[in-house]
Amino acid sequence: MSRSQRPLEFFIDRSLGRHQVPQALREAGWTLRTHHEVYGKRDEVVPDVEWLKMCGREDLPVLTKDRRLRYRPAEIAAIRRFGVRAFVVTGGNLRAEEQAARFDRSRQRIEEACAGSGPFVYAIQADRIVRVFP
């Protein structure tokens, strides 16, 4: 099944937590896998490069709040190598409800961006999304 024929599924990085953000997005109709659901007991020790590789290979766009992701050499190399499509919510002090709301308000633009191939990183701001990499 091609990318356009199957429902879009996202990967929720551990930086967004295990419960509140994923639950809010699921209630809004998003299909996703959380970092903890994928890695279980290894959740806290899985290197970013490992899950970025998995997301690229399994064609899972990433939702995260790790703004530094695009500045770390190993992570940026993984984003490039595996064609990762990532969306970073900005505003580090936002509560879980507002993080989820920002993603949901930008859902159409996120899905439009996901129609293309990676690698890329978008910042999810209060009222828009902005491509920040490459």
Overall 3D shape: globular
Strand content is 15-25%
Number of domains: 1
What is the averaged pLDDT score?
Answer: 92
CATH architecture label = 3-Layer(aba) Sandwich
Radius of gyration: 13 Å
Query: How many strands appear in the DSSP assignment?
Result: 6
What name does CATH use for the topology?
Answer: Rossmann fold
- State the order of secondary-structure elements, H for helix, E for strand: EHEHHEHEHHEE
Percent helix:
25-40%
Defining traits:
134 residues, Rossmann fold, 6 helices, 6 strands
What does this entry look like structurally?
The protein is of the alpha/beta class and 134 residues long. The protein has a single domain (3-133), classed as Rossmann fold. It has helices at 20-27, 35-39, 48-57, 73-82, 96-105, 107-114; strands at residues 9-12, 31-34, 62-64, 85-89, 120-124, 129-133. The chain is globular, with a radius of gyration of 13 Å.
